[in-house]
């Protein structure tokens, strides 16, 4: 579910703030070292030419124009699909949790992850995507990452329930700060002066936004801060675990789709345990909202969009690159925040609005600074 999930550097890739709302925990943003035949190659490339036929010069010119047009429209189309799926996912999660007053965040997570698991498995069986065959050694290595992943999703769910979308987006900037500090401590990775300046701006915006938040909720802020810690931990832990996990795969690598499947599939038994532990199953059986067909439509759509974020982000990354993806991800926060303020009629004061806009600016400045 939610977070602006971190596109951290993995073997030389640019870093980026992860997406608020991604059901797959931003796995799409952690790029493996090598890309063989990816999902985007299969779904979005189309056929490439001939089997030895002699093509006329005129036809060759037409084909060149078509390929040139595809190259120009590809980044725009993939970027638009990524932004729409990302914004829609966050808004739908907010509708399910707050609009329908649904108080079973773990159950919603379980349902969404189940949808993602079923779809990826079906795509794997049909040969549309390549999925690594799971084995016990691979699962055992991945479990620590998965536990953090579940905590990240659950805390993200509950923060969205109690805190408005704009504030969640601004507070998520704390994740960038924690990750940078973790990289400095664990990997001895030093940031440039612009990055530290951007992080200082983000700290100021987070503090001022919280102080001026008219709808301030202590429980919601506690969940969101927990989410920031868990998201940063997830990103830093994943960097270490990925290299170890590759040793237990047949191909010697772990593609994005396989990581999506690992996280979603392994989360199901843990989520089921939490549902029983927190007595959510009893709440879900008795709550009236589950009798509404529209509730299931929205909940299912949010699960499908969670998976769509993974696929569209892979497509967008393939069409452009981590740098463009990073900047678009930061700019994408602006329409998400404004839409959340308008659609959910969030009470605002001028100081709070200024703090939110300042935080959005700081996020974009951070992305630009990471590119320099």
Automatic annotation (TrEMBL):
TM regions (residue ranges): 109-129, 141-159, 165-186, 195-215, 221-238, 259-278, 294-317, 324-346, 352-369
Region listing for Disordered, in residue ranges: 1-25
Biased composition (Basic and acidic residues): 1-15
Chief localisation class: membrane
UniProt name for this protein: Sugar phosphate transporter domain-containing protein
Origin species: Malus baccata
Annotated Gene Ontology cellular component terms: membrane
Protein's UniProt keywords contain Glycoprotein: no
Keywords tagged on the record: Membrane, Transmembrane, Transmembrane helix
UniProt domain Sugar phosphate transporter: residue ranges: 81-365
Pfam families: TPT (PF03151)
Membrane topology classification: Multi-pass membrane protein
Subcellular location field: Membrane
């Amino acid at each position: 579910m939610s977070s602006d999930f971190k596109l951290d550097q993995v073997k030389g890739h640019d870093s980026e703030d992860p997406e608020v709302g991604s059901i797959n925990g931003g796995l799409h943003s952690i790029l493996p070292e090598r890309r063989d035949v990816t999902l985007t190659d299969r779904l979005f490339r189309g056929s490439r030419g001939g089997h030895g036929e002699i093509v006329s010069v005129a036809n060759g010119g037409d084909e060149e124009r078509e390929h040139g047009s595809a190259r120009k429209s590809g980044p725009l189309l993939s970027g638009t699909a990524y932004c729409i799926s990302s914004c829609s996912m966050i808004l739908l999660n907010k509708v399910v949790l707050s609009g329908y007053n649904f108080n079973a965040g773990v159950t919603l997570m379980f349902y969404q992850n189940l949808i993602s698991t079923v779809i990826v498995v079906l795509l794997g069986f049909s040969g549309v995507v390549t999925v690594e065959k799971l084995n016990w050694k691979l699962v055992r290595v991945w479990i620590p990452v998965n536990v953090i992943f579940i905590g990240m999703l659950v805390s993200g769910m509950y923060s969205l329930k109690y805190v408005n979308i704009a504030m969640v987006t601004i507070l998520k900037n704390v994740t960038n700060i924690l990750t940078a500090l973790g990289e400095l401590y664990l990997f001895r990775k030093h940031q440039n002066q612009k990055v530290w300046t951007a992080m200082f701006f983000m700290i100021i915006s987070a503090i001022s936004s919280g102080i001026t938040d008219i709808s301030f909720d202590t429980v919601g802020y506690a969940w969101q801060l927990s989410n920031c810690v868990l998201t940063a931990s997830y990103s830093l832990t994943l960097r270490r675990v990925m290299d170890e996990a590759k040793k237990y795969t047949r191909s010697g690598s772990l593609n994005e789709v396989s990581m999506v499947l690992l996280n979603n599939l392994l989360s199901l038994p843990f989520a089921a345990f939490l549902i029983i532990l927190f007595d959510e199953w009893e709440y879900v059986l008795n709550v009236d909202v589950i009798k509404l067909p529209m509730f299931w439509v929205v909940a299912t759509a949010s699960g499908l969009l969670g998976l769509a974020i993974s696929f569209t982000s892979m497509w967008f990354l393939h069409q452009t690159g981590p740098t463009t993806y990073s900047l678009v991800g930061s700019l994408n926060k602006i329409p998400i925040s404004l839409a959340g303020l308008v659609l959910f009629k969030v009470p605002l004061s001028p100081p709070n609005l200024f703090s939110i806009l300042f935080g959005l600016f700081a996020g974009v400045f951070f992305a630009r600074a990471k590119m320099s």
